[in-house]
């Protein structure tokens, strides 16, 4: 059972600090360039939240990655990242973060949300899972986090 005294143990606090650090570092390197691939994945979020449809007719000129089906434009990407982005963008919209934004700014926000939900968050889960696996094998706290840091942020290029 998780109690307050167990939560505030120094080892738990160190782990929480590392997770927050990983989140910050992973968020610094998000690719938010408006290239055809992420734009095509973000446009369904805009269409769903603002028009109530998956068809991107109102935004189809913003991307070259699209399909024309029965008079409607759709993204030609696999839907999972668009669905995840839609949920995050919908929350941002409900909290008023899209009020007064231009279409280009809304698109930039949707791409940022999608990159974070589909890039940074899974990266964080991978590092925490690696840490937990290594901890279960008996490594110390510092060595477990060191291994996770090397795996997550190290380079694999030969020197």
Give a brief description:
By secondary structure, the chain is mainly alpha-helical. The protein has six helices and two strands. It is elongated and about 60 Å long.
Search tags:
159 residues; mainly alpha; two-stranded antiparallel sheet; 6 helices; 64% helix
Describe this structure in words.
- The chain has about 160 residues and is mainly α.
- It is built from six helices and two strands; from the N terminus they run H-H-H-E-E-H-H-H.
- The protein has helices spanning about 5, 10-30, 35-50, 80-95, 105-135, 140-155, and strands at about 65-70, 70-75.
- Strands 1-2 form a two-stranded antiparallel ribbon.
- A hairpin with a 2-residue loop joins strand 1 (about 65-70) and strand 2.
Task: Map the helices and strands.
Layout: H1 4-7, H2 10-28, H3 36-51, E1 66-69, E2 72-75, H4 79-94, H5 103-136, H6 141-153
Antiparallel strand pairs: 1-2
Helix pairs in contact: 2-5, 3-4, 3-5, 4-5, 5-6
Run of helices and strands: HHHEEHHH
Q: What is the overall silhouette?
A: elongated
Q: How many β-strand stretches?
A: 2
**Cα radius of gyration in angstroms:** 20 Å
Largest sheet, described in full? Answer: 2 strands, antiparallel
Q: What spatial order of strands do you see in the largest sheet?
A: 1-2
Count of helix runs: 6
**Residues in helix, %:** 55-70%
Low-confidence runs of at least 5 consecutive residues: none
- Beta fraction: 5-15%
Ends apart, CA distance between termini: 47 Å
Mean pLDDT: 86
Class of secondary structure makeup? mainly alpha
